[in-house]
DNA sequence: ATGGCCCGTAGAACGGGA
């Protein structure tokens, strides 16, 4: 596919951009995605590699903090005339954790989310996760993103259905799979967005995350928790959605695989 | 057997991830 045929977007939880930067560079060079959303950069803004990315042809917004969280959106300089910040946090909640970034690329709106993990369903972190998701849902509704060319990409930390889980019985009502979390994911779809992967592949079982322990990747004991949600105007032009499982095989791999979508290029310049 | 691995901050273990 030549670059002019469509628009590609990718999401990847890098689990430390410092450790994963060489892998990211290789992927950018080989895949040439137009937009890339990153989660868990685990660095402050002053350490974010803006210059190195620019040399690779990408401009970027990043909001980070020491040690934990941190999200970024990268966009190819030669594919968009403008890149503007919409929000670098959910404006309807006070939150020191850097988990959200929304930008506008010409007329295309893109949001990058790192949904809290939740730890266990009886923990304060789980309650924080559910509240965070409620804030995200309210925000997306307020912004009327469902009526626009809009993509929400990220690590949702939710496996939407049992077919997204290697062992549904083991994970039954556990964090990432609980009914309360899945209800929030369903509410996101009810706003008018679609799970790009699941719409294109209704019966395919494939995961985006595998535990580092117990040879989970080699045994393909994983979960599908990284997602691309698209507004209806983009869904109409959706050509493909791919989980880049190969990246999980690398030396010093992230525990998450990148997920990308390919859409016929919308009219961004009007 | 209830942890195994990986990361950042440490400058030894520990919190966090999922």
The portion of residues assigned to helices is 10-25%
- Radius of gyration over all CA atoms, rounded: 17 Å
**Main sheet properties:** 6 strands, mixed
Q: Could you give the count of β-strands?
A: 14
Mean pLDDT comes to 95
Q: What would you call the structural class?
A: alpha+beta
Shape: globular
Beta-strand content bin: 25-35%
Please write the string of helix (H) and strand (E) elements. Answer: EHEHEEEEEHEHHEHEEEHEE
Which residues form runs of ≥5 with pLDDT under 50? none
Number of helices: 7
Strand order of the largest sheet: 3-4-2-1-14-13
In whole angstroms, how far apart are the ends?
Answer: 24 Å
Short description:
By secondary structure, the protein is an alpha+beta fold. The chain has 7 helices and 14 strands.
How would you characterize this protein structure?
The protein has helices at 17-31, 50-55, 124-142, 168-171, 179-190, 196-200, 232-235, and strands spanning 6-13, 35-39, 58-63, 71-76, 83-87, 100-105, 108-114, 150-155, 193-195, 209-210, 222-223, 226-231, 238-243, 259-264. It is built from seven helices and 14 strands. The strands form three sheets. Strands 3-4-2-1-14-13 form a six-stranded mixed sheet. Strands 5-6-7-8-12-9 form a six-stranded mixed sheet. The protein is globular, with a radius of gyration of 17 Å. It is α+β, with helices and mostly antiparallel strands. The two termini are 24 Å apart.
């Amino acid at each position: 596919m030549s670059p002019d045929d469509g628009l590609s977007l990718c999401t990847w939880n890098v689990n430390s951009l410092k450790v994963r930067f060489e892998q990211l560079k290789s992927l950018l060079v080989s895949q040439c995605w137009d937009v890339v959303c990153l989660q868990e950069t685990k660095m402050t803004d002053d350490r974010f590699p803006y210059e190195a990315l620019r040399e690779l042809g990408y401009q970027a917004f990043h909001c980070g903090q020491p040690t934990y969280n941190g999200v970024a959106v990268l966009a190819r300089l030669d594919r968009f005339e403008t890149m503007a910040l919409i929000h670098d946090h959910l404006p309807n909640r006070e939150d020191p954790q850097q988990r959200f970034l929304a930008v506008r690329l010409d007329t295309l709106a893109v949001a990058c989310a790192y949904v809290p993990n939740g730890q266990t369903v009886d923990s304060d972190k789980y309650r924080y996760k559910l509240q965070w998701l409620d804030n995200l849902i309210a925000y997306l509704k307020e912004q009327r993103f469902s009526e626009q060319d809009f993509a929400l990409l990220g690590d949702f930390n939710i496996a939407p259905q049992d077919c997204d889980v290697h062992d549904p019985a083991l994970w039954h009502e556990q964090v990432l799979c609980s009914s309360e979390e899945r209800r929030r994911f369903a509410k996101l779809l009810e706003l008018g967005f679609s799970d790009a992967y699941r719409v294109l592949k209704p019966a395919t079982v494939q995961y985006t995350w595998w535990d580092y322990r117990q040879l989970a990747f080699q045994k393909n004991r994983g979960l599908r928790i990284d997602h691309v949600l698209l507004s209806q105007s983009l869904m109409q032009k959706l050509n493909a959605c791919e989980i880049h499982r190969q990246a999980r095989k690398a030396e010093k791999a992230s525990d998450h695989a990148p997920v990308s979508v390919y859409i016929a290029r919308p009219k961004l310049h009007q």
